[in-house]
Records
---
Amino acid sequence: MDGDTSQYRSSRSDDQGMILVLVLVLLGMITALVIQSQMVARMTLGTEERKIARVQLRAAATDAAWEALRLLVDDDDRLVDHTNEPWATPGGRLLPNGIETSVQIEDENRRFDINSLSVRLPEKTQRFPLDIVRDILALSRQPDPLVQAQVLQDWLDPDHAGLREEDYYRSLNPPVTIADALMESPQELAEVLARSGSRGGVPPGFAVLPDRARRIMPVNLNTAERDVILAVLGPQNAAAAATLIGLRDAGPLASLTVLNRLLKTGPENPWSLYFNVKSSFFSVTARAAKGEDSEEVYALVCRDAQGNVDILRWVCQ
Ligand SMILES: [Ca+2]
Ligand SMILES: [Ca+2]
Protein backbone atom coordinates (compact mmCIF):
# COMPACT_ATOMS: atom_id res chain seq x y z
CA MET A 1 0.00 0.00 0.00
CA ASP A 2 1.64 3.22 -1.22
CA GLY A 3 0.84 6.20 0.99
CA ASP A 4 1.80 9.84 0.44
CA THR A 5 5.35 9.98 1.91
CA SER A 6 6.29 13.40 0.47
CA GLN A 7 5.63 15.13 3.81
CA TYR A 8 8.07 12.75 5.62
CA ARG A 9 10.76 13.35 2.92
CA SER A 10 10.29 17.10 3.27
CA SER A 11 10.60 16.86 7.06
CA ARG A 12 13.86 14.80 6.79
CA SER A 13 15.40 17.22 4.32
CA ASP A 14 14.46 20.16 6.67
CA ASP A 15 16.23 18.33 9.54
CA GLN A 16 19.32 17.73 7.39
CA GLY A 17 19.33 21.44 6.40
CA MET A 18 19.09 22.44 10.03
CA ILE A 19 21.96 20.10 11.00
CA LEU A 20 24.08 21.54 8.17
CA VAL A 21 23.40 25.07 9.38
CA LEU A 22 24.28 24.05 12.94
CA VAL A 23 27.50 22.39 11.75
CA LEU A 24 28.41 25.50 9.74
CA VAL A 25 27.69 27.77 12.73
CA LEU A 26 29.76 25.48 14.95
CA LEU A 27 32.62 25.49 12.43
CA GLY A 28 32.40 29.27 12.23
CA MET A 29 32.59 29.55 16.02
CA ILE A 30 35.55 27.18 16.20
CA THR A 31 37.35 29.12 13.44
CA ALA A 32 36.68 32.42 15.28
CA LEU A 33 37.99 30.93 18.53
CA VAL A 34 41.13 29.64 16.79
CA ILE A 35 41.75 33.05 15.17
CA GLN A 36 41.14 34.83 18.47
CA SER A 37 43.52 32.55 20.37
CA GLN A 38 46.16 33.06 17.67
CA MET A 39 45.72 36.83 17.97
CA VAL A 40 46.00 36.68 21.77
CA ALA A 41 49.12 34.51 21.45
CA ARG A 42 50.63 36.96 18.95
CA MET A 43 49.81 39.93 21.20
CA THR A 44 51.32 38.16 24.23
CA LEU A 45 54.41 37.36 22.20
CA GLY A 46 54.62 40.99 21.04
CA THR A 47 54.30 42.26 24.64
CA GLU A 48 56.98 39.81 25.81
CA GLU A 49 59.27 40.84 22.95
CA ARG A 50 58.78 44.52 23.85
CA LYS A 51 59.51 43.74 27.51
CA ILE A 52 62.71 41.90 26.56
CA ALA A 53 63.72 44.77 24.23
CA ARG A 54 63.13 47.28 27.06
CA VAL A 55 65.20 45.22 29.49
CA GLN A 56 68.02 45.01 26.92
CA LEU A 57 67.88 48.77 26.31
CA ARG A 58 67.89 49.55 30.03
CA ALA A 59 70.83 47.21 30.60
CA ALA A 60 72.76 48.87 27.74
CA ALA A 61 72.02 52.38 29.14
CA THR A 62 73.07 51.24 32.64
CA ASP A 63 76.34 49.78 31.29
CA ALA A 64 77.03 53.03 29.44
CA ALA A 65 76.43 55.03 32.65
CA TRP A 66 78.79 52.79 34.67
CA GLU A 67 81.43 53.08 31.97
CA ALA A 68 81.13 56.88 32.16
CA LEU A 69 81.51 56.79 35.96
CA ARG A 70 84.77 54.88 35.52
CA LEU A 71 86.08 57.85 33.48
CA LEU A 72 85.41 60.09 36.49
CA VAL A 73 87.24 57.69 38.81
CA ASP A 74 90.18 57.43 36.36
CA ASP A 75 90.58 61.23 36.11
CA ASP A 76 94.34 61.61 36.75
CA ASP A 77 94.05 65.24 37.94
CA ARG A 78 91.27 65.67 40.45
CA LEU A 79 92.62 69.07 41.56
CA VAL A 80 91.64 70.64 38.24
CA ASP A 81 88.52 69.87 36.21
CA HIS A 82 87.72 71.34 32.82
CA THR A 83 85.75 70.59 29.69
CA ASN A 84 88.70 69.21 27.70
CA GLU A 85 89.08 66.14 29.89
CA PRO A 86 88.14 62.62 28.73
CA TRP A 87 85.10 62.49 31.07
CA ALA A 88 83.67 65.66 29.45
CA THR A 89 83.69 64.18 25.94
CA PRO A 90 80.31 62.71 24.92
CA GLY A 91 80.60 58.98 24.30
CA GLY A 92 78.60 56.22 22.69
CA ARG A 93 78.83 53.09 20.59
CA LEU A 94 76.90 50.71 18.37
CA LEU A 95 76.56 47.34 20.12
CA PRO A 96 76.59 43.98 18.24
CA ASN A 97 72.86 43.54 19.01
CA GLY A 98 72.05 46.75 17.09
CA ILE A 99 71.52 48.92 20.19
CA GLU A 100 73.10 52.37 19.96
CA THR A 101 74.24 54.05 23.17
CA SER A 102 75.17 57.64 23.94
CA VAL A 103 76.46 59.07 27.20
CA GLN A 104 77.26 62.53 28.51
CA ILE A 105 78.83 63.64 31.80
CA GLU A 106 78.15 67.20 32.89
CA ASP A 107 79.84 69.11 35.66
CA GLU A 108 77.15 70.26 38.10
CA ASN A 109 79.58 72.69 39.73
CA ARG A 110 79.28 74.86 36.66
CA ARG A 111 76.10 76.17 38.28
CA PHE A 112 75.37 77.88 41.59
CA ASP A 113 73.96 75.52 44.20
CA ILE A 114 70.66 76.94 45.46
CA ASN A 115 71.27 75.27 48.85
CA SER A 116 74.09 77.77 49.43
CA LEU A 117 71.27 80.16 50.39
CA SER A 118 70.95 78.31 53.70
CA VAL A 119 74.39 79.42 54.93
CA ARG A 120 74.57 82.32 57.38
CA LEU A 121 77.66 84.44 56.73
CA PRO A 122 79.10 87.23 58.94
CA GLU A 123 77.43 90.64 58.60
CA LYS A 124 80.57 92.21 57.10
CA THR A 125 80.55 89.75 54.16
CA GLN A 126 80.83 91.62 50.84
CA ARG A 127 78.80 89.22 48.74
CA PHE A 128 76.02 87.02 50.12
CA PRO A 129 74.50 83.97 48.40
CA LEU A 130 71.23 85.98 48.29
CA ASP A 131 72.96 88.62 46.09
CA ILE A 132 74.24 85.92 43.73
CA VAL A 133 70.85 84.19 43.45
CA ARG A 134 69.17 87.56 42.84
CA ASP A 135 71.66 88.38 40.06
CA ILE A 136 71.27 84.97 38.38
CA LEU A 137 67.48 85.53 38.42
CA ALA A 138 67.97 89.05 37.02
CA LEU A 139 70.24 87.76 34.22
CA SER A 140 67.51 85.18 33.44
CA ARG A 141 65.02 88.06 33.06
CA GLN A 142 62.84 86.97 35.98
CA PRO A 143 60.10 89.47 36.93
CA ASP A 144 61.12 90.26 40.53
CA PRO A 145 64.62 88.88 41.24
CA LEU A 146 65.09 90.20 44.81
CA VAL A 147 61.68 89.02 46.06
CA GLN A 148 62.12 85.66 44.32
CA ALA A 149 65.58 85.19 45.88
CA GLN A 150 64.12 85.95 49.34
CA VAL A 151 61.27 83.49 48.75
CA LEU A 152 63.81 80.77 47.87
CA GLN A 153 65.93 81.56 50.92
CA ASP A 154 62.92 81.48 53.29
CA TRP A 155 61.87 78.11 51.85
CA LEU A 156 65.13 76.39 52.73
CA ASP A 157 66.59 78.31 55.68
CA PRO A 158 65.83 76.84 59.11
CA ASP A 159 64.41 80.03 60.66
CA HIS A 160 60.85 81.38 60.51
CA ALA A 161 61.66 85.06 59.98
CA GLY A 162 61.26 86.30 56.45
CA LEU A 163 59.04 87.33 53.59
CA ARG A 164 57.38 83.94 53.02
CA GLU A 165 57.71 81.55 55.89
CA GLU A 166 55.55 78.92 57.57
CA ASP A 167 52.56 81.27 58.18
CA TYR A 168 52.31 82.26 54.51
CA TYR A 169 52.32 78.67 53.23
CA ARG A 170 49.86 77.55 55.94
CA SER A 171 47.42 80.26 54.82
CA LEU A 172 47.31 78.93 51.25
CA ASN A 173 44.33 76.92 50.03
CA PRO A 174 45.20 74.07 50.13
CA PRO A 175 47.88 74.73 52.76
CA VAL A 176 51.49 73.86 51.95
CA THR A 177 54.11 72.65 54.41
CA ILE A 178 57.27 74.71 54.11
CA ALA A 179 60.53 72.73 53.91
CA ASP A 180 62.79 74.89 56.14
CA ALA A 181 65.40 72.39 54.96
CA LEU A 182 67.84 71.98 52.07
CA MET A 183 66.21 71.40 48.69
CA GLU A 184 66.22 67.86 47.37
CA SER A 185 65.59 68.17 43.65
CA PRO A 186 65.26 70.57 40.69
CA GLN A 187 61.51 69.80 40.76
CA GLU A 188 61.27 71.28 44.26
CA LEU A 189 63.15 74.39 43.07
CA ALA A 190 60.82 74.67 40.06
CA GLU A 191 57.74 74.48 42.31
CA VAL A 192 58.96 77.16 44.73
CA LEU A 193 60.01 79.38 41.82
CA ALA A 194 56.59 78.92 40.21
CA ARG A 195 54.94 80.11 43.44
CA SER A 196 57.10 83.24 43.28
CA GLY A 197 55.86 84.15 39.78
CA SER A 198 58.83 82.70 37.90
CA ARG A 199 58.77 82.61 34.12
CA GLY A 200 60.25 79.74 32.11
CA GLY A 201 61.12 77.22 34.83
CA VAL A 202 64.49 76.88 36.54
CA PRO A 203 67.20 79.23 35.16
CA PRO A 204 70.19 77.26 33.80
CA GLY A 205 72.52 78.94 36.33
CA PHE A 206 71.06 76.97 39.28
CA ALA A 207 71.85 73.49 40.55
CA VAL A 208 70.26 71.60 43.44
CA LEU A 209 73.05 69.65 45.09
CA PRO A 210 71.85 67.47 47.95
CA ASP A 211 73.92 67.36 51.09
CA ARG A 212 73.41 66.96 54.81
CA ALA A 213 75.52 69.97 55.73
CA ARG A 214 74.69 73.62 55.21
CA ARG A 215 77.66 74.87 53.19
CA ILE A 216 78.56 77.00 50.22
CA MET A 217 79.33 74.83 47.22
CA PRO A 218 81.99 76.55 45.09
CA VAL A 219 81.43 77.06 41.37
CA ASN A 220 84.12 75.63 39.08
CA LEU A 221 85.66 78.61 37.23
CA ASN A 222 86.79 76.33 34.39
CA THR A 223 83.32 75.06 33.55
CA ALA A 224 80.94 77.71 34.94
CA GLU A 225 78.21 79.27 32.87
CA ARG A 226 79.03 82.85 31.87
CA ASP A 227 76.04 84.26 33.78
CA VAL A 228 77.06 82.40 36.94
CA ILE A 229 80.54 83.97 36.94
CA LEU A 230 78.98 87.40 36.32
CA ALA A 231 76.46 86.89 39.12
CA VAL A 232 79.01 85.62 41.66
CA LEU A 233 81.38 88.54 41.04
CA GLY A 234 78.56 91.07 40.84
CA PRO A 235 77.98 93.95 38.40
CA GLN A 236 80.83 95.99 39.94
CA ASN A 237 83.27 93.34 38.69
CA ALA A 238 81.79 92.81 35.22
CA ALA A 239 85.09 93.71 33.50
CA ALA A 240 87.05 91.26 35.68
CA ALA A 241 84.42 88.58 34.96
CA ALA A 242 84.82 89.13 31.18
CA THR A 243 88.63 88.85 31.45
CA LEU A 244 88.33 85.74 33.61
CA ILE A 245 85.99 84.07 31.12
CA GLY A 246 88.39 84.90 28.26
CA LEU A 247 91.34 83.44 30.17
CA ARG A 248 89.66 80.21 31.15
CA ASP A 249 88.31 79.78 27.60
CA ALA A 250 91.95 79.95 26.38
CA GLY A 251 93.06 77.21 28.80
CA PRO A 252 92.03 75.67 32.14
CA LEU A 253 92.90 77.61 35.28
CA ALA A 254 94.99 75.59 37.74
CA SER A 255 94.28 77.84 40.74
CA LEU A 256 92.47 81.00 41.85
CA THR A 257 95.64 83.09 41.42
CA VAL A 258 94.27 84.79 38.28
CA LEU A 259 91.09 85.69 40.15
CA ASN A 260 93.08 87.24 43.00
CA ARG A 261 95.23 89.18 40.55
CA LEU A 262 92.24 90.51 38.64
CA LEU A 263 90.43 91.58 41.80
CA LYS A 264 93.70 92.94 43.26
CA THR A 265 93.33 90.87 46.40
CA GLY A 266 94.97 87.94 48.18
CA PRO A 267 93.98 84.30 48.75
CA GLU A 268 91.41 85.41 51.36
CA ASN A 269 89.43 87.44 48.84
CA PRO A 270 85.67 87.57 49.50
CA TRP A 271 84.96 85.51 46.38
CA SER A 272 87.32 82.63 47.11
CA LEU A 273 84.63 80.73 49.00
CA TYR A 274 82.41 80.83 45.90
CA PHE A 275 84.99 79.63 43.35
CA ASN A 276 87.23 76.65 42.77
CA VAL A 277 88.98 75.08 39.78
CA LYS A 278 87.77 71.53 40.45
CA SER A 279 84.36 69.88 40.75
CA SER A 280 82.77 67.35 43.03
CA PHE A 281 79.23 66.95 41.62
CA PHE A 282 78.57 65.48 38.19
CA SER A 283 75.49 64.30 36.31
CA VAL A 284 75.54 61.36 33.90
CA THR A 285 72.92 60.90 31.20
CA ALA A 286 73.13 57.59 29.31
CA ARG A 287 70.74 56.63 26.53
CA ALA A 288 70.26 53.36 24.63
CA ALA A 289 68.12 53.21 21.49
CA LYS A 290 67.06 50.71 18.87
CA GLY A 291 64.54 51.67 16.22
CA GLU A 292 61.70 53.59 17.82
CA ASP A 293 62.45 52.38 21.37
CA SER A 294 64.83 53.96 23.84
CA GLU A 295 65.67 53.94 27.55
CA GLU A 296 67.53 56.58 29.55
CA VAL A 297 69.47 56.49 32.81
CA TYR A 298 70.22 59.68 34.74
CA ALA A 299 72.60 59.76 37.68
CA LEU A 300 73.77 62.52 39.99
CA VAL A 301 77.07 61.61 41.65
CA CYS A 302 79.54 63.13 44.07
CA ARG A 303 83.29 62.49 43.71
CA ASP A 304 85.57 63.09 46.69
CA ALA A 305 89.24 64.12 46.68
CA GLN A 306 90.33 60.46 46.73
CA GLY A 307 88.29 59.70 43.62
CA ASN A 308 85.52 57.77 45.38
CA VAL A 309 82.22 58.26 43.59
CA ASP A 310 78.92 58.25 45.53
CA ILE A 311 75.67 57.88 43.61
CA LEU A 312 73.12 60.37 44.97
CA ARG A 313 70.31 59.94 42.41
CA TRP A 314 69.75 57.14 39.89
CA VAL A 315 66.71 57.50 37.68
CA CYS A 316 65.65 55.20 34.81
CA GLN A 317 63.18 56.66 32.34
CA1 LIG B 1 90.29 66.56 36.34
CA1 LIG C 1 62.58 79.31 56.61
Note: The two ends are 91 Å apart (CA to CA).
---
Amino acid sequence: MNVSDAVRQRRSVRDFRPDPVPKSLLTEVLDAARWAPSGSNIQAWRIIAVAGAERDAIVEMTRSAASAPGFGKTADPFPIYPPELWEPLRTRRYALAEDMYRALGIPREDKPARLRHVARNFEFFGAPVGLFFVIDQRVAHGQWAHLGMLIQTVALLLEERGLGSCMQEAWASYRPQLAERFGLAPTEMVYCGMAVGFPKSENPVNQFERSRITLDELVDFRGF
Ligand SMILES: Cc1cc2nc3c(=O)[nH]c(=O)nc-3n(C[C@H](O)[C@H](O)[C@H](O)COP(=O)(O)O)c2cc1C
Protein backbone atom coordinates (compact mmCIF):
# COMPACT_ATOMS: atom_id res chain seq x y z
CA MET A 1 0.00 0.00 0.00
CA ASN A 2 1.41 3.40 -0.91
CA VAL A 3 0.96 6.51 1.22
CA SER A 4 -1.76 7.98 -1.00
CA ASP A 5 -3.83 4.80 -0.71
CA ALA A 6 -3.38 4.70 3.04
CA VAL A 7 -4.47 8.33 3.36
CA ARG A 8 -7.54 7.79 1.19
CA GLN A 9 -8.54 4.43 2.65
CA ARG A 10 -8.17 5.28 6.33
CA ARG A 11 -11.50 6.08 7.86
CA SER A 12 -12.79 6.22 11.37
CA VAL A 13 -13.90 2.71 12.25
CA ARG A 14 -16.79 2.65 14.73
CA ASP A 15 -17.41 -1.09 14.95
CA PHE A 16 -14.67 -3.69 15.34
CA ARG A 17 -14.35 -7.45 15.36
CA PRO A 18 -13.29 -8.85 18.73
CA ASP A 19 -10.28 -10.63 17.19
CA PRO A 20 -7.15 -9.79 19.17
CA VAL A 21 -4.43 -7.62 17.67
CA PRO A 22 -1.09 -9.42 17.93
CA LYS A 23 1.26 -7.46 20.19
CA SER A 24 4.03 -7.93 17.61
CA LEU A 25 1.95 -6.14 14.96
CA LEU A 26 1.12 -3.24 17.27
CA THR A 27 4.74 -3.00 18.38
CA GLU A 28 5.83 -2.81 14.73
CA VAL A 29 3.40 0.06 14.14
CA LEU A 30 4.36 2.02 17.23
CA ASP A 31 8.06 1.48 16.60
CA ALA A 32 7.68 2.90 13.07
CA ALA A 33 5.53 5.79 14.38
CA ARG A 34 8.47 6.99 16.49
CA TRP A 35 9.64 8.61 13.25
CA ALA A 36 6.75 11.08 13.21
CA PRO A 37 8.09 14.64 13.13
CA SER A 38 7.83 17.20 15.90
CA GLY A 39 9.03 20.80 16.08
CA SER A 40 12.65 20.91 17.29
CA ASN A 41 12.32 17.13 17.54
CA ILE A 42 11.18 17.49 21.13
CA GLN A 43 8.74 14.56 20.92
CA ALA A 44 6.60 15.85 23.77
CA TRP A 45 4.41 12.78 23.70
CA ARG A 46 3.91 9.27 24.88
CA ILE A 47 1.40 6.51 24.27
CA ILE A 48 -0.24 4.12 26.69
CA ALA A 49 -1.48 0.99 24.92
CA VAL A 50 -4.08 -1.21 26.60
CA ALA A 51 -5.51 -4.63 25.81
CA GLY A 52 -7.02 -7.60 27.65
CA ALA A 53 -7.80 -7.13 31.33
CA GLU A 54 -6.47 -3.56 31.39
CA ARG A 55 -8.71 -2.55 28.49
CA ASP A 56 -11.70 -4.21 30.13
CA ALA A 57 -10.97 -2.50 33.45
CA ILE A 58 -10.97 0.88 31.72
CA VAL A 59 -14.31 0.16 30.09
CA GLU A 60 -15.66 -0.84 33.50
CA MET A 61 -14.13 2.26 35.09
CA THR A 62 -16.07 4.52 32.71
CA ARG A 63 -19.32 2.81 33.68
CA SER A 64 -18.87 3.37 37.39
CA ALA A 65 -17.42 6.88 36.92
CA ALA A 66 -20.35 7.96 34.75
CA SER A 67 -22.87 6.96 37.39
CA ALA A 68 -20.99 8.68 40.24
CA PRO A 69 -22.58 11.89 41.56
CA GLY A 70 -21.13 15.06 40.02
CA PHE A 71 -19.68 13.27 36.98
CA GLY A 72 -19.04 15.70 34.11
CA LYS A 73 -19.90 18.73 36.18
CA THR A 74 -16.36 20.15 36.40
CA ALA A 75 -15.28 22.24 33.42
CA ASP A 76 -12.32 20.75 31.53
CA PRO A 77 -9.47 23.30 31.37
CA PHE A 78 -8.57 21.84 27.96
CA PRO A 79 -11.94 21.63 26.18
CA ILE A 80 -12.01 19.81 22.87
CA TYR A 81 -14.19 22.43 21.19
CA PRO A 82 -14.92 26.07 21.94
CA PRO A 83 -18.30 26.56 23.65
CA GLU A 84 -19.86 27.89 20.43
CA LEU A 85 -18.65 26.65 17.06
CA TRP A 86 -19.05 29.18 14.25
CA GLU A 87 -19.88 28.68 10.59
CA PRO A 88 -18.91 26.81 8.52
CA LEU A 89 -17.48 24.59 11.27
CA ARG A 90 -20.82 24.10 12.99
CA THR A 91 -22.50 22.88 9.82
CA ARG A 92 -19.68 20.46 9.06
CA ARG A 93 -19.97 18.96 12.51
CA TYR A 94 -23.72 18.62 12.13
CA ALA A 95 -23.32 17.00 8.70
CA LEU A 96 -21.02 14.31 10.10
CA ALA A 97 -23.53 13.48 12.83
CA GLU A 98 -26.33 13.25 10.25
CA ASP A 99 -24.32 10.95 7.96
CA MET A 100 -23.25 8.74 10.81
CA TYR A 101 -26.66 8.37 12.45
CA ARG A 102 -28.28 7.73 9.08
CA ALA A 103 -25.80 4.89 8.50
CA LEU A 104 -26.61 3.55 11.96
CA GLY A 105 -30.34 3.78 11.24
CA ILE A 106 -30.88 6.11 14.18
CA PRO A 107 -33.45 8.85 13.56
CA ARG A 108 -32.53 12.40 14.60
CA GLU A 109 -35.17 12.52 17.32
CA ASP A 110 -34.05 9.28 18.97
CA LYS A 111 -31.74 10.87 21.48
CA PRO A 112 -31.36 7.78 23.71
CA ALA A 113 -30.12 5.76 20.70
CA ARG A 114 -27.68 8.53 19.80
CA LEU A 115 -26.38 8.60 23.34
CA ARG A 116 -25.99 4.80 23.28
CA HIS A 117 -23.84 5.17 20.19
CA VAL A 118 -21.73 7.90 21.85
CA ALA A 119 -21.30 5.57 24.83
CA ARG A 120 -19.80 2.95 22.48
CA ASN A 121 -16.73 5.21 22.43
CA PHE A 122 -16.07 4.01 25.94
CA GLU A 123 -16.07 0.39 24.81
CA PHE A 124 -13.56 1.32 22.10
CA PHE A 125 -16.37 0.48 19.65
CA GLY A 126 -15.65 -3.17 20.42
CA ALA A 127 -11.95 -2.92 19.54
CA PRO A 128 -9.59 -5.14 21.55
CA VAL A 129 -6.90 -2.46 21.82
CA GLY A 130 -6.95 1.12 22.99
CA LEU A 131 -4.22 3.70 22.66
CA PHE A 132 -4.04 6.81 24.81
CA PHE A 133 -1.99 9.77 23.65
CA VAL A 134 -0.51 11.59 26.61
CA ILE A 135 0.73 15.17 26.58
CA ASP A 136 2.28 17.40 29.22
CA GLN A 137 0.01 20.29 30.15
CA ARG A 138 2.98 22.67 30.31
CA VAL A 139 3.55 22.56 26.54
CA ALA A 140 2.64 25.41 24.18
CA HIS A 141 0.15 25.17 21.30
CA GLY A 142 2.84 23.94 18.93
CA GLN A 143 3.27 20.67 20.77
CA TRP A 144 -0.44 19.88 20.51
CA ALA A 145 -0.07 20.11 16.74
CA HIS A 146 3.04 17.92 16.93
CA LEU A 147 1.02 15.25 18.72
CA GLY A 148 -1.40 15.22 15.79
CA MET A 149 1.51 14.20 13.55
CA LEU A 150 2.08 11.16 15.72
CA ILE A 151 -1.58 10.21 15.86
CA GLN A 152 -2.09 10.28 12.09
CA THR A 153 1.18 8.45 11.54
CA VAL A 154 -0.05 5.65 13.81
CA ALA A 155 -3.38 5.54 11.98
CA LEU A 156 -1.74 5.26 8.55
CA LEU A 157 0.66 2.54 9.68
CA LEU A 158 -2.29 0.59 11.10
CA GLU A 159 -4.13 1.00 7.80
CA GLU A 160 -1.13 -0.38 5.94
CA ARG A 161 -1.36 -3.54 8.04
CA GLY A 162 -5.10 -4.07 7.53
CA LEU A 163 -6.01 -2.72 10.95
CA GLY A 164 -8.62 -0.03 11.55
CA SER A 165 -8.66 2.82 14.02
CA CYS A 166 -10.85 5.52 15.42
CA MET A 167 -9.31 8.55 17.04
CA GLN A 168 -11.31 9.33 20.14
CA GLU A 169 -11.39 12.74 21.75
CA ALA A 170 -14.42 11.42 23.60
CA TRP A 171 -12.00 10.06 26.19
CA ALA A 172 -11.48 13.65 27.34
CA SER A 173 -14.59 13.09 29.47
CA TYR A 174 -12.58 10.68 31.62
CA ARG A 175 -9.28 12.53 31.90
CA PRO A 176 -9.09 12.60 35.72
CA GLN A 177 -10.01 8.91 35.99
CA LEU A 178 -7.53 7.90 33.27
CA ALA A 179 -4.77 9.98 34.87
CA GLU A 180 -5.35 8.18 38.14
CA ARG A 181 -5.56 4.73 36.58
CA PHE A 182 -2.34 5.22 34.58
CA GLY A 183 -0.50 6.99 37.41
CA LEU A 184 0.27 9.99 35.20
CA ALA A 185 2.58 12.71 36.52
CA PRO A 186 0.63 15.73 37.84
CA THR A 187 1.52 17.73 34.71
CA GLU A 188 0.47 14.99 32.30
CA MET A 189 -2.93 14.41 30.74
CA VAL A 190 -4.57 12.17 28.17
CA TYR A 191 -5.26 14.21 25.05
CA CYS A 192 -7.23 11.56 23.22
CA GLY A 193 -7.65 7.86 22.72
CA MET A 194 -7.68 5.59 19.71
CA ALA A 195 -9.59 2.36 19.23
CA VAL A 196 -7.55 -0.19 17.28
CA GLY A 197 -8.59 -3.49 15.80
CA PHE A 198 -9.92 -5.31 12.78
CA PRO A 199 -12.92 -3.47 11.30
CA LYS A 200 -16.37 -4.99 11.00
CA SER A 201 -16.38 -3.78 7.43
CA GLU A 202 -19.91 -4.99 6.75
CA ASN A 203 -21.42 -2.56 9.28
CA PRO A 204 -22.85 0.49 7.43
CA VAL A 205 -21.32 2.76 10.10
CA ASN A 206 -17.99 1.78 8.59
CA GLN A 207 -19.17 2.41 5.03
CA PHE A 208 -20.98 5.74 4.83
CA GLU A 209 -19.67 8.32 2.41
CA ARG A 210 -17.46 10.88 4.11
CA SER A 211 -17.16 14.44 2.93
CA ARG A 212 -14.33 16.94 2.78
CA ILE A 213 -14.03 20.57 1.81
CA THR A 214 -12.88 21.10 -1.77
CA LEU A 215 -9.29 21.75 -2.78
CA ASP A 216 -10.26 25.36 -3.52
CA GLU A 217 -11.61 25.79 -0.01
CA LEU A 218 -8.53 24.18 1.46
CA VAL A 219 -5.75 25.81 -0.55
CA ASP A 220 -5.01 29.34 -1.61
CA PHE A 221 -2.40 28.88 -4.33
CA ARG A 222 -0.35 32.06 -4.76
CA GLY A 223 2.47 32.84 -7.16
CA PHE A 224 2.27 29.61 -9.16
C1 LIG B 1 -8.25 13.92 17.08
C2 LIG B 1 -9.53 13.30 16.65
C3 LIG B 1 -10.43 12.87 17.60
C4 LIG B 1 -11.62 12.24 17.23
N1 LIG B 1 -12.49 11.81 18.20
C5 LIG B 1 -13.56 11.06 17.86
C6 LIG B 1 -14.38 10.48 18.87
O1 LIG B 1 -14.21 10.68 20.07
N2 LIG B 1 -15.39 9.66 18.47
C7 LIG B 1 -15.65 9.41 17.15
O2 LIG B 1 -16.58 8.65 16.86
N3 LIG B 1 -14.89 9.98 16.18
C8 LIG B 1 -13.85 10.77 16.50
N4 LIG B 1 -13.04 11.31 15.53
C9 LIG B 1 -13.29 10.97 14.13
C10 LIG B 1 -13.76 12.14 13.28
O3 LIG B 1 -15.13 12.33 13.46
C11 LIG B 1 -13.42 11.79 11.84
O4 LIG B 1 -12.02 11.76 11.69
C12 LIG B 1 -13.99 12.75 10.82
O5 LIG B 1 -15.40 12.70 10.84
C13 LIG B 1 -13.50 12.40 9.42
O6 LIG B 1 -13.90 11.10 9.07
P1 LIG B 1 -12.88 9.94 8.76
O7 LIG B 1 -11.90 9.82 9.90
O8 LIG B 1 -13.73 8.70 8.66
O9 LIG B 1 -12.17 10.27 7.49
C14 LIG B 1 -11.89 12.02 15.87
C15 LIG B 1 -10.98 12.47 14.92
C16 LIG B 1 -9.82 13.11 15.29
C17 LIG B 1 -8.86 13.58 14.24
Note: The mean pLDDT is 96.
